[in-house]
């Protein structure tokens, strides 16, 4: 039994005419008869009674007709859904990114993308750089948003956005009245610092700067989220280094003070990364094109 035979049977059951079935299917009458006979043989039942060139459904034929209607309707439904997938209107995207991009930048643009493609399903997973890198390599993620382009041969990276790291302290902190800091100040006046967990891109950059400039590393706390770090800094438990995208609201309402480091470039670039060995599904391609188009709107002051 095959779908072609089921289709021929379905038309014959509706018309009760080999001639009309042959015409509708654009086949010869003998071909229709052969296909129906082959279907009956494969099922080991008679589907039609043939009397004086007329055909009528047997009891088995009536039952099979009911199932053929369901089957052909399901096939039509499958084809319709698959057409949506092939057009890129339906599918699932799995994204991995850091707190900075995932919580403070991407949601607005994911909302716009969902308005354009309401049937698309998006899973946004917050993770550190190492996790995102590994899952992008393994194919578990469709895209990851990483600070600095990875050097793995299977991965491709496109520029996404430029960010800036700031020293953050409580309004009660002794640095709060200053308008900026310098490397010399940081080296001569080391302060307890609150860091992200191991594997975080921000932590890696901070530790590199501390080591390079010989600044004492006085870690007072480690936390796994930027929100937690902000609350700890507000409580004056230490200073931190956070993205200006992360602290916009707190700086505006005065619960945190942001200080630049005058003689240090703290700008950093983020990239949208994907495994170039994976086949780009239509929805993936549409999302990639959408993000590339939107990146210049994220922050005109710092766009590349």
Summarize the structure in short:
The chain is of the alpha/beta class and 304 residues long. The protein has twelve helices and twelve strands.
Q: How would you describe what is shown here?
A:
The chain has 12 helices and 12 strands. The protein folds into 3 domains: 84 residues, Winged helix-like DNA-binding domain superfamily/Winged helix DNA-binding domain (Arc Repressor Mutant, subunit A, Orthogonal Bundle), CATH 1.10.10; 101 residues, Periplasmic binding protein-like II (D-Maltodextrin-Binding Protein, domain 2); 104 residues, D-Maltodextrin-Binding Protein, domain 2. The two termini are 60 Å apart. Strands 3, 4, 5, 6, 7, 8, 9, 10, 11 and 12 form a 10-stranded mixed β-sheet that branches. A two-stranded antiparallel ribbon has the order 1-2. By secondary structure, the protein is α/β, with parallel strands linked by helices. The longest helix has 29 residues. 47% of the residues lie in helices and 24% in strands.
* Radius of gyration from CA coordinates: 32 Å
What is the CA–CA distance across the termini? Answer: 60 Å
Summing up helix and strand content along with how strands pair, one would put the structural category as alpha/beta
Proper CATH architecture of the largest domain: 3-Layer(aba) Sandwich
| CATH level 1 class label of the largest domain | Alpha Beta
The overall pLDDT average reads 89
Give the number of domains.
3
Overall, the morphology is rod-shaped
Low-confidence stretches: 300-304
